[in-house]
Amino acid sequence: MLGATGLSLADLLRLRAAAAEMTPARPRRDDTAVIFLWMPGGFPHLETYDMKPDAPTEYRGDFKPIKTNVPGIEVTELFPQHARVADRFSLIRSIAHTFSDHGGGHKRLMTGRLPKTPVGTVNDAPACPSIVARMREDIPQPLPHNILMPDQGRHGVDVFAFGSAYLGPAYTPFIVPGDPSAASFSVPNLSLPTDMAARLEDRRRLLEGIDRMRRELDQTGAMVAMDRFTEKASSLLTSASARDAFDLSREDDATRERYGNHSWGQRTLMARRLVEAGASFVSVVLENPTPGRPLPFGTTYNWDCHAVNCHVFTDTRFRAPYYDQTVTALIEDVHRRGLDKRVLIVATGEFGHTPRINYQVGTQTGVKQPGRDHWPAAMSVLVSGGGLRMGQVVGSTNAKGECPQERPLTPNDLWATIYRHLGIDTSHHFYDHSGRPMPILPFGEPIAELI
């Protein structure tokens, strides 16, 4: 069974086959890929990429900016490794939207559309990674084109609005939950214990029997010639190349150590292996860098730095070293391996956090502490690779980090840039459940400063 969808791999391939027949010819760059680093809870822009050292105390926070190897670009003092590779990334500081709830923010970011409801994470439009998978279905690869890597227990397709909506369940992500740094980690649907060999053969025979019954009942002929998909599913499950892509033991110790022996680092290293092996879009969820261990006092599970959840500065001090190591290791590795034209790295959350600090009693600490609430009116995004122009800052916010001041942008402009990298025509449309033609992206343009 595949993740939370309840579909067998053969069923998934059959659904994709039927849909692929409706995909028209289009210009495309088949060798490109995206690694999407997703920070649920909202990335605190004033603590990281858009610091305001001259703002009043109640805005600027505890941390100071530091210079980088690119004149004019500064990042938080908690990101010293960023400072050494700023010539290999660009920061976008002027993206904004209007959905302040996690659900609405997730849907707004992940679909490139204005969601029908401001809450909830069940999509009414396909998540953009599902669209990528749909548009690239005919590219033969041993790996799925849409892969999602979250924490164990956070791996439902709707947790982060990664649903495929009217594209259908064939294009939901292949979900790989868990901590790759843990000794017990395994990849669902690819790990076959010895005692499973006979059972796999029994399952194959059972599927053949079910398919024969389906064909006898089907009067339209839609099931004809579908046996090849069961065969392809079995081939993928036992594919040496697929297993190798997920096998981190094939990396040398120095590389693994550079990424960090924690869930964020090893998960991101696996993402690099997957895009190198042919996956088109790999989403890496960065919530808790040390699952299975008690969280330090004053911190919270993900980036949701309300005062009731955590002490925002304590929490940022906790997670910043993991993030700094993970992101810079990926940037360096992609460049070292000559993938910087082919692979685009994007790091973002669903929104930023309030410029003005507020204080509340923490539910876990029991003491009054500083925090920042949801703030979609301003957010920061890092991009690297993809053949884009690096070593620059695009846009700015006002003196307190409250709203875009120069070059206002939306999440759709970010997605237009991503689709451009992948060679996907955003004017192409699909039909929703009511039969209306829906373009891939209803508005937005590639960010000119980056291309």
Any descriptors?
single chain, 451 residues, alpha/beta, Alkaline Phosphatase, subunit A, eight-stranded mixed β-sheet, two-stranded antiparallel ribbon, 12 helices, 30% helix, 15% strand, globular
Polypeptide structure, described:
The chain is an alpha/beta fold and 451 residues long. It has one domain (9-450): Alkaline Phosphatase, subunit A (3-Layer(aba) Sandwich). Helices cover 30% and strands 15% of the residues. It has helices spanning 9-20, 57-60, 80-84, 102-111, 128-135, 196-217, 227-237, 240-246, 253-259, 263-276, 312-336, 411-422; strands at 33-38, 65-67, 74-76, 90-95, 146-149, 174-175, 281-285, 343-348, 352-353, 358-361, 368-371, 374-375, 379-385, 393-394, 396-397, 404-406, 429-431, 437-439. The chain has an 8-stranded mixed beta sheet, sandwiched between helices. The chain has a two-stranded antiparallel ribbon with strand order 2-3. A two-stranded antiparallel sheet has the order 9-12.
